[in-house]
TrEMBL record:
The keyword Signal applies. It comes from Fibrobacter succinogenes (strain ATCC 19169 / S85). InterPro entries: LolA/LolB/LppX, OM_lipoprot_carrier_LolA-like. CDD domains: LolA. Keywords: Signal. This is Outer membrane lipoprotein carrier protein LolA.
């Protein structure tokens, strides 16, 4: 089964349970000149790697159906080679995101390639997710309005895409990090949240 364009877009950014009031509070705290140095230092520390890998649990909550859809798999984020997002259960699929394009492989082994020149919106989404894992606030600000909240361990950032065409796919992103990225919650253009919990996180600086 092939993923829809909307589902690919949500996964990209991000290449990601509902958002409660405590999580939504981050959007009341825009990044400022006062707290910017703190975020720059914290973000650079969390993203100080060349390759990050581990497992993920993805939960998509659809309130009107009163249902949650859960999938699990592995991820690999390389600052040179891009992102590989491999869903293992309940249905296998693999998504590779890099500067040259996006490659999807489904459970039947069929491969679909999206090139930036053929699909500008996916090129823009790819740029957005790469900025998310860049570790640089300046890169984030090119693509998002940035909000920041310091936590007892680490921080929380809220991101609202600047481009209207991206907001059709992704309304906002909330990321929690302590020593590593722990959780990303993406709310899509239809206000449906998807939570990505990162497990067994490993990093390499080589």
């Amino acid at each position: 089964m092939r993923m829809s364009c909307r589902n690919i877009g949500v996964l990209l950014l991000t290449v990601l349970l509902g958002i409660g009031s405590s999580m939504a509070d981050v959007f009341e705290r825009p990044l400022s000149a006062k707290n910017r140095p703190e975020l720059e230092k914290s973000l650079a520390k969390v993203m100080d790697y060349q390759v990050a890998s581990g497992d993920f649990k993805q939960t998509k909550s659809i309130q009107k159906l009163n249902r949650e859809f859960v999938s699990t798999g592995t991820f690999r984020i390389s600052k040179k080679a891009g992102i590989i997002w491999k869903t293992q259960k309940p249905v296998f699929s693999e998504l590779a995101i890099h500067n040259a394009g996006i490659v999807e492989r489904d459970t039947n082994g069929q491969i679909r390639t999206l090139l930036p020149k053929e699909n500008p919106i996916f090129a823009e989404v790819s740029n957005n997710i790469q900025s998310l894992f860049s570790g640089k606030v300046t890169e984030l600000e090119k693509n998002f309005k940035v909000f920041y909240e310091k936590k007892s361990c680490g921080f929380r950032i809220g991101l609202i895409p600047r481009e209207a065409m991206i907001r059709m796919l992704v309304d906002n992103v909330v990321m929690d990090a302590c020593k590593n990225v722990d959780r990303i919650v993406i709310t899509d253009g239809e206000k449906i949240p998807t939570t990505l919990d990162f497990l067994n996180y490993k990093v390499s600086k080589k």
